[in-house]
Write a structure and sequence with these properties.
Layout: H1 2-9, E1 20-24, E2 32-38, E3 41-47, H2 60-70, E4 78-82, E5 87-91, H3 98-102, H4 107-125, H5 141-159, H6 166-183, E6 190-192, E7 201-204, E8 207-210, E9 217-219, H7 222-229, H8 238-254, H9 262-289, H10 300-313, H11 318-331
Antiparallel strand pairs: 1-2, 2-3, 3-5, 4-5, 6-9, 7-8
């Protein structure tokens, strides 16, 4: 009742009578989402504990959303906010995700859709720094190692404890340090959404709408490309992935947003994909074994299944690959 009352207060007075509020199952976050059913249409309400008592001028969702919208990226419209309660009222962009469309389109239509989404990604990655919060954050050494260590804690010491012995984990962490040192290249950094995958692209009619962008930060352009093309929730055919890598690189080059050649792009794609997928595996293991969200277990095997591809192509990953082999094998059982 209290939630309904608070949400109702964000609505215009003439829309408050007879509203119905339905909880929407969230993903791996602390935010709660509700669909608000009105006589004339619907809205989405979000309760975010991190927003409670915070100035809207510094709240990342609003800061990043304004940056993206100002650069022509379609994001949900913010209709009202109440920072004292950590509450936002947003445009309802529906329930259809890019993930839902992948299995329904023929190969040509699927390629067209993904090129459309990459155009949005390139638009994000071409936004020049303006001194605001997301441009002060990056995938630096500490952040990348935090993500590797999260995998060690929740996968190797947690859900899959015993698959690697203590010495192997120690050696693996040293390899993670070496890989991290290859990925911290500030001169190549661009703005990244940070979680640019098929569940964070809504389809409103035929228009992609980007959501869940509040954690944006600087990093290699391959970071978001990996999230989209080596997605834990959908598996794209290899020829399509290869053509989309080339398309992403070419569009970045047209905008002057990349300063490496295509061979370098492909090398860093694989190195970044290794890190990003390992990070995702840590998140999935945490969600299953700590947060009690068993639905994420189905994403572990396909994500681990991506790793041998990068390991086989890049000598920089060979030692880590040998150490991870028992883990990868276990995930496939």
């Amino acid at each position: 009742m209290e939630t309904s009352r608070l949400i109702g207060q964000l609505l215009p007075a003439d829309e408050r009578d007879g509203i119905e509020i339905v909880r929407i199952k969230g993903d791996a976050s602390n935010r709660q989402y509700f669909r608000v059913l009105l006589a004339k249409g619907t809205r989405i309400a979000c309760i975010d504990p991190a927003f409670r008592g915070t100035s809207p001028d510094t709240y990342p969702f609003l800061v990043v959303g304004n940056i993206l919208a100002g650069s022509g990226v379609r994001v949900p419209e913010v209709l009202a906010v109440d920072s004292s309660e950590g509450l936002l009222l947003l445009e309802d962009c529906g329930d259809r995700m890019l993930q839902d469309e992948v299995g329904l389109l023929d190969p040509d239509a699927l390629a067209t859709r993904y090129r459309q989404v990459i155009d949005i990604l390139v638009k994000i990655q071409s936004i020049p720094p303006d001194g605001s919060a997301p441009f002060s954050l990056s995938f630096d050494h500490d952040k990348l190692m935090f993500e590797f260590d999260f995998f060690i804690r929740h996968a190797l010491h947690g859900m899959f404890a015993g698959v690697l012995d203590r010495e192997a984990v120690t050696q693996l962490r040293r390899e993670f340090e070496a890989i991290t040192s290859l990925l911290v290249i500030p001169g190549h950094f661009v703005l990244n959404h940070r979680d640019f995958h098929s569940r964070n692209i809504m389809l409103l009619g035929d228009e992609p709408v980007v959501i869940d962008f509040q954690d944006a930060r600087l990093g290699l352009p391959q970071y978001d490309a990996v999230s989209l093309l080596r997605d834990s929730y959908v598996t794209l055919e290899a020829p399509l992935v290869d053509s989309l890598k080339e398309y992403h690189f070419g569009e970045l080059e047209k905008r002057g947003a990349i300063a490496m050649d295509f061979d370098e792009y492909l090398r860093y794609f694989d190195l970044m994909a290794f890190q990003r997928n390992v990070k995702a595996l840590g998140t999935f293991c945490y969600q299953v074994s700590v947060a009690g969200n068993p639905s994420f277990e189905r994403s572990i095997a396909p994500t681990a299944g991506f790793l041998p591809d990068y390991i086989g192509r890049r000598p920089e990953l060979a030692a880590a690959g040998r150490l991870l082999e028992p883990f990868i094998r276990r995930c496939s059982l």
